[in-house]
Amino acid sequence: MGTLTTAPMTHHDPALSFESHLTQEMCDSVLASLRRRDQRHKGQLYVRGLLTAQGRKTMRNLATSTREPAAAQSLHHFISVSTWDWSEVRTSLARRLERALTPHAWVVQPMVTPKSGVHSVGVQRRFIRQLGQAVTSQHSHGLWLAGQSAAAPVNWQLSVGEGRSQDLARGARDGVPETSGGTWSGFGDDTAISVVLEAASWGLTPRPVVIDARDVPPAPLIEAFTAADLPFLLRVSGNTPLLAPDLSGGQRRVLTAPAEHLATLARSQQRPVEWVDPAMPHVLRTGLAAVLPVLWPGITVPRRPRPHGMSAVDPRRSGGAELLLMGQWHPNRRRVAELWLTNMTRAGRGTLLRLSKLTRRTDTDFTRICLDVGAQDFEGRSYHGWHRHMTMVSLAHAVRVLVREDREHADLERSG
């Protein structure tokens, strides 16, 4: 009886059948840049393993999802030893998802992967603000195409720190990029910058770059994205120094003050904004937002000595980038909840607030999908291997997202 009842679910479940068909179609399309037929075959096996293997996506676990002998060794070679170019695969995936998802923003999201050992590339002991403690971990940034209903990663950059080349085994060092000074690149804010600028070179339609930048210095981000002519929206900490009109005195002065203090001066300009929560579809929320024109000092002119505390500054001599500061408040709360800087000076507060909430979309899909398809399960030590694994993770994530989008579209049609 058990065989009779379970067989139809295995072979005829429409959801499973559609996911299998979409996996085949996506792999044929996205992996077409791989020149060798055996590489394209192994790539498809790897993606299917990420989608179907239970538990951690180890090589042994992935191999059990195939019916091929020596699959574990074959897949290991494909990820850690082979020479295929992950950037070409990511470019193809990004272009495909740009058409399928019509994203509103490029959200840059950090990923902290705890590690028990220190020999894998990029492993360091770092203080993680969200956890409130130091953790031995890999740290990376993903670039996500994010819309109201879905988000998917299309590019990754791994932070490898500086000066650790003597601490790692040869296999971990291989392929790690070096700066002109001989130290490893991709540390801290440089990782967030490089993951965006590389994707910007792929011919995608530029979207606002949305980043929670409270843990990195915002100056390099602002300078890099301004030079690349990219719109951005950066969440900043309350002590970030800015130049802005003095709203309290009624005189035409410009003062320098922390972002949180300037938001307090702009509280009289608060307006309610409704937004649909990307983390909870169909849930309508209301927030309070105010915007204030500000300047980011020190980008285009040499730094000048400033008096301690707040002081009047001549805006014609201060230099810097023209930006907007947006403060967000929860209803019935006096203290500002979030602070965001943007170069989209003509955007309304409603547009900016809704863009900022797309970080909730990436958080949700990272937790529900990306982790499940192996984002933190790579056990190898090499830089190349990590990047190739994350490329296949991105492809598997895209399949899951598109299956969900198709299912939700079908549900809407039936209910309509």
Automatic annotation (TrEMBL):
InterPro entries: IS701-like (IPR039365), IS701-like_DDE_dom (IPR038721). Signal peptide: none annotated. It holds the Pfam family DDE_5. It comes from the Bacteria. This is IS701 family transposase. Residues 31-253 form the Transposase IS701-like DDE domain.
